[in-house]
Amino acid sequence: MEYYNASTELMLKFSYRNEFLLKSEPYPLLQYTYIQECLQKNIQINLQIIYIELPRKSKKMMQIINNEPDIFPTKIKPIKPIDLMKENELNTQLLPLQPSSLLFKFTLRLRPSVNAKQALFQLHSGIYYGRRCLFSFEQMTWDNTFTEEKTRTTTLPIANLLPGTLLCFALTNKQSESYFLNVSLFRSTARLLNGSYEFTLNAVNSRQNIANMKHLYPDGFIGSSCDESTPNNYEIKLRFDFQSLRFYDNDEISKKLVDIAMPTPTAVATAKQQQHHESSADMANGEALNYLLGSLNDETQYMVREPSWLSDCSSAPIDALPCVLHSILADIHRMILSDTNNTANTTIIYEKFFSMYKLINLWPPMSFEMCFFLLDCTLPDAHIRSYAVSQLVRLPNHLFLFYLPQIIQAAIQFEHYIDTPLIRLVLKRALCHRAIGQKLFWTLLNVNTRNGRVMFELYKTYCGLTIANDLQNQFVLTLKLNKINQRIRAKNIKDASAMQQALVAHLRESDKNSWRCVSPLDTGCFLGSLLTDECKVYDSFMRPFKLVWENALNPTNERFELIYKIGDDLRQDVLTLQVFRLFDSIWKKNSILYPNEDLSQLHNVHMTFYDVMCTSDTTGFIRIVPNACTILNIYHRFNTTTTIKRNVIYDWLVTENNTSQKIPLGKTARRTNTTGATNEPMDSSVPNSVLVKFRKSCAAYCTAGFVMGL
Hints:
Residues 531-710 form the PI3K/PI4K catalytic domain. 37% of the residues lie in helices and 17% in strands. The protein contains 20 helices and 20 strands. α4 (267-275) runs antiparallel to α5 (278-296), α12 crosses α13 and α13 crosses α14.
């Protein structure tokens, strides 16, 4: 393609993959799956250098070009001068300046559902800030066949409400029906809700991992979902009879932060870190993490000993910011619940609140792993969450993809509004990196929350026609496989060979080229023709399918083997594999930082991982580990099913590494120790490098599995 105003650029292409790398991209080659596969298989890496023509970007003086597209272009409106009367009017609308005698109240109206059977419900309601209860209303009984309207009052001054405060509702009955609703009391413009609003309560699903606190669910998502599977829809109308009140804007907050004097955070800890070994900093950060985990646990929060640096942030470790913020919010929570509701108490509350903002502005960059503690439901403030997003921006794409499940969860579950820095970051990365976008698509496909549906529609709108068609082909592929699975299960076939014949017959009903698409597990791999003769059904409870494709870019020399599983929640596998990869990276990092005789052995513990892509709550694809053999198959190979025979694995290693010496079935190989002594009947041994590799791998998986409680 020729451009009128073009420049020739070099591009690196990975052979037999749809993966490219521009010379301007500062990302490591190791993030690409093709490079990882070549290193694991110890085969040659084939790369190509190609030339492309790109249109030049016009750059004005003192203007910085942003490589990421701006989905929500910011419109800067000119500031108009306001007169003195207007300024006084704005000051009277400030929420913190309201008198302490003005208490928060609202009116609710419950309407019956059309298809609901008569039942008595208990309505629970409360006001929460970051999982901390500010006020709990009395329980109310409601007959779901009648309309109920009631005004609820509190003893909570309206001036003590902070941005991020939630009004939580829950409906329960004796038939174990539960519904919940969380409403943010502030708009995205930091104005308190006023007027009337209608919501639909959300059914509590057993698959949702949300905590029940006094029958309420402050950990749940904000607003109403669009779950069509809910049999009964209960609507609630809320009315807030307040004038338009607002919180401080950014300019007013900046002026208040100037007057706050505070020592430089982590200054003492940073100086000690420079004088002593790095391990001292790791111990301090570990102490901060242990305190944070203990304080967030409802069972241990009152038993955790407070570190000395909570009162002096200058001696706090770098990763202690979440701990300090939670400590300040705990003080604010105690002051709000105190009986002294007066103007002086409100002033102290906002002094502590603004000191938290000042602390964030002065805090040095911390590890991005700790940023996730700033994005959960315990810290709903927008300023804190914006700081966490500013740290996550530094993540390269391969690490962003690694932590994408947690990032998406924070975006769809804990963001109070649709247009937030975190949601913008996720959408920008998804549009700029195809693998991130594909994973975002499959994650949000069946999400019914407000934020999830908006993000899903935005990505589909802006991803482009080519990517949209590829995702559509993958979606059609899953529908066809689900239909084949239903037809096979309907026949109630028990025999494995008959089931495989049925699978092959159903696969051949479609043309083999109709199965061509981009791999759901790797956007750089293009699945070619489906090799139906090599597909089969595994002899397990869920009867997963083994599917084999040609590599469309290298059809004669490479194949892609995937498992399609129906009936299991593969999200558990995704989380387990993510933690295993995290263990592997920590061990490798420590062996590089501390290269002594012992830790250097951990440089490579030979952990082999496979990829999993969940297409729904009960379906998903699994990449088959090449040349792998299960323990069960090894025992079957040696005509034994007992795990007491310890030599079976050793015998299998002998047969795999000594091709010239085949062990007869029922015989045992001779095991040679380091001194040369043998105590086995046959003269065969496993190379020492193979044994070391096997032992390291077993030790790594056993250690990681024990820590996870598997």
